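thought: fold this chain, then report.
action: predict
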Amino acid sequence: MLVIKENGKVRLQNRHGISYTWRLSEFVEAAQRLNGDFILDGEACYVNPATGQVEFTNCQRRCATQDVGAQIYLRQKYPLTFKAFDIIAYNGTDLTTLPYLERKALLSKVVPLKGTIEYVPFRADIKSFFEEVKARGDEGIIIKRTDSPYEHERSFNWLKVKNWKDETCSVVGYTPGKNARAPFFGALVLAKKDGKYRGCVGGGFNDWELRQIKDMLSDAPKMSPPFDIGEPYTAVKTSLKVEVKYYKATEAGVLRFPVFRRIVP
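observation:
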């Protein structure tokens, strides 16, 4: 998300230009208390006060809810923090060509270390920092060249290092495929050992794996869907298990961004 303050007026938008100004009014109020005009790049986060962990689902509810009454309630229940990790402009000056460390130095003067909008410090001990991130169960880190300009897209100057986790799941169904995947399937519906819904995996398959899995699913007897996933799918009774990699699970136990790795013998 970008926090944009021009002539004292604040607006919020994501990287696709969608406005969040009225939905996340605490960021507007916090930005108005900061000195100067600026464009801050960062991320809206909900940090569970009981665990200290960033939780995706509650933040998503705040960002997605457009009902005014619901937003008032959710703001009290799930207060968000804007983690500012870069500054694009300050008092009308474009900063995108400045080296990363110079932008961070200016950002640290504009944004406090703690607050509704807070400065995200950087670390130089990359290896030990990544080990800490893995131990906390966080999603990963971004490595940036210290002399790099601001990047609007991914590049070799800014690298995302992901903290992948592995899990074996049972396949209990599949969604229909579209376009090039129409002859096969869209995604596999996954369950844990206890039979609870674990999510859907639709990426990571090669052509041979698509054919192999489709044949196995076609031969499997159909059954009633064991749970609702929010879209139509065909439930099957099969012994098929797959290994997937993923970043994190939601509070409801659903895997975030799972990717297929292999069929488990």
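thought: worth noting. Residues 10 and 250 are 31 Å apart (CA to CA).
final: tokens above.
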